[in-house]
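assembly run, all chains below
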Amino acid sequence: MSQQITLHVNGKDHGIEVEPDSMLLYALRDNLSLRGPKFGCGLSECGACTVLMDGKAVHSCITPVSAVGAAKVVTLEGLGTAEHPHPLQTAFIEEQAAQCGYCINGMIMHAASLLEQNPHPSRDNIKTALNGNLCRCGTHMRIVRAVERAAGRVNG
Amino acid sequence: MNTKSRDMQSGADLAVSRRAFLKSSGGLVVAFSLFGPPASADTAQQSVAPPPADKLYAWLAVHPDNTATLFTGKVETGTGVQTALAQIAVEELDFPFDRLRVVMGTTSKTVDQGPSYGSMTVRYAGPQIRHAAAAGRQALLDLAAKHFGVHSNQLVAKEGTISVLGSPGRKITYGKLVDGKRLNIEIGASGERFGMKVAPKALLKDPSTYTVVGKPIARKDIPDKIMARFTYVQDVRVEGMLHGRVVRPYGVEATLLSVDETGLKNIPGFVQVVRRDNFLGVVAETEWAAIQAAAKLGSVLKPSGPDAGQAKWSNWNGLPQVDRIWETVRKTAEGRNESAVSQGSAAMAFAYAGRTLKATYKTPFQMHGSIGPSCAVADVKGDRATLWSGTQMPHETRRDMAKLLGIPLDGIEVRWFEASGAYGRNGLEHVVADAAIMSQAVGRPVRVQWMRWDEHGWEPKEPPIVQDLQGALDDAGHVSAWQHHMWIPTTGDTHLIAAALIGKPDVTGHTGQGRPAVTYAYDFPNADVACHGEGRVGLLTAWLRSPAQFETTFAMESFIDELAAATKQDPLAFRLAHLKDPRAIAVLKAAAQKYGWESRPAGVKSDPNGKPAHGRGIAWVNRDDSLVATIADVTVDPASGRIKVGRVVVAHDCGLVINPDGLKNQIEGNIIQSISRTLHEEVTFDTAHVTSRDWQGYPILRFEEIPDRIDIVLVNNTPEYLSTGAGEPSTCPTAAVIGNAVFDAIGVRLRQTPFRPDRVKAAMS
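ok done. output:
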């Protein structure tokens, strides 16, 4: 049965009616009309659906809505705005680090989580952090450069 | 659920906020969002025919705020071609790049310029747009001449403004001149699609004066993609829309015996099952309900049998054996022999040759592997159909859907939105048919997205190929005879999956035949290159990035290396000694210079002793007049059999480059994707269906495996050289480069992709 559930997403509470065992990804995309998180596999294998939950990168395609509770969810939309983009967003644009761009949500969200935990990542740290995220266009070189560029900026 | 239409929403946003558009200077603006009606079903009275190519308005609109729109039937697939075409247009139009939008693909707003495939967009659509934009500039000058009462040769156009020479105060913007009117001006057009000539009399600029073409301008689409403002086809939401999922047969050609609907009605939001012959789908109010219902019927990652789900299928087992697929390919093609090169007498030369080498190369089924599974929205009512699609060929899809649905062409519109990258034709055409059939059945708009196993299991694949090579060497170490025979199933079978399932397999599409996908450029005195082509062998196929030429280049450029090694010659010098094409020689030399190539035979230092060994490899290709030479370093760990690619150097000649940074992005993508295809990728199947149904079963390259660096040199980037394609060619040499480098490192020749660790170890022992 559908239930009324409150999700805290991008700084606001949203009351939605969903199946508690349905996945967070569909609530974000279909109930809240967000487009950052993408359906890629539904199997936690590609990272396209990544969001931050209390600052940690999680795969929303396998996270039941019932497991979110009071956690603060941040999607790519909530990371930065046109006026105040997140340093990662600025860096990805400057490095032209996208081709089709479908995977980029996951790249940025995972990188954001990395920079929270490790503001001075080495190139190897970045590759390890993003190793669970798949990109089919082969934009990897630019993605790594963009994260390095953002890290440099975050660190001043 | 949220019922606000994403389509309407984006249109409204754009209509009220030109300023925001200009500020972001990004974002794919879709035709109807700006000028057309909203995206609900109220389009019944609108004409949906494409505009006539001989009218300026078919290509260009100038708006009162002095922004402009370029319309093109070509589409963006992640390659940056939207930006490249915009650069070509503003160059001729003398208009600010940031004020030009590009509307792509939507069939009611654009001219059919042929599908966006084969690295042909810049090469063929580029000149069409260049001419249309030049005609636009002339038309604006004519309008200004009337406006100022002067001859147009007294006017100068710059950055969207026309001024009278010698009278600095007398100037007017394009927007004011056009004053909101449609550019109903005859410019002339003849031919169609790739061969169409547009505005043949338009006066073009001298390429030596270009200021926009050739500049590394930032891509128009990237900011919105990074800021989550972009609308992919996967993001399209239409008012009143239902969610659909397909339930494919257990075996590829199995028959649907029965469907037990028990329990489906208990799924909140479930609407109905759609069944037509062997086509099976479910529709629901929510995505989650559709996924749950499809799972009950049998759509799961690992189905355990044809009657494991509530839909029962016949026990079909007609696929060939996966480990004997190359024998099957050879047998299927028996008797066919299409000669690509026949020079001298290879047979005679081999008969009298002092030294002869032979080798066989094998490559497997591979897949496009889009990160976002195929998706479409369809609204089919009576004799009207509106289809939201990310297809590479919207105009062809429109014609196909007319045939499939039995609706007159005049009633069908394809509204194009970019999809997740496809690298060829994947499931995007097929999912439109799925959505259309479901919408037709339920009388409401239906959005269908394939599950990961639908995509991996059913997207059309690159076929398996087997190639026999033979070379003869004379006493001086020259090649005296060359034979290259390839067995190639079709790389393009355009039959729609859904059409076959509803019992109309031949309503549209056809099965091609494998062709000799090779540009032979060596100068051997005796040569015999031939293709034994065939139609479908096993799984449905459709063009994957450099169809068949990725594979033929692997064989040709590996075997050249074998001949060089057999005579202890440097692989670069050996190639150069057998080449006359100056552009081929130029890319090889450019790559070697950038790399710092020192002359020595391959494999001479290979003494692994169980320790990681280093090697270098080289290969080149001519794919449709684009030439690429690649050199790479690899490290091979003999203990694990793992190959790691270190530095990669690419020399690339596609003539005049429109956007060098966009080109480099493409080349890097080609290199990484082709390393992935070389090291990891092989579709597996049993006799019923594809068994590599997710990223575990079909792994692709990950961050920890990417090269240390990719150095790129652009060759012949000048106006004397025609702009040819760049979306595919740099894929071709990679497998040979890596195979040759592995030989250099450990003295072992790999003749079958993918070079997975177990296969490397087997080759070593």
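The two ends of chain A are 50 Å apart (CA to CA).

The mean pLDDT of chain A is 96.

not gonna interpret more than that til we talk
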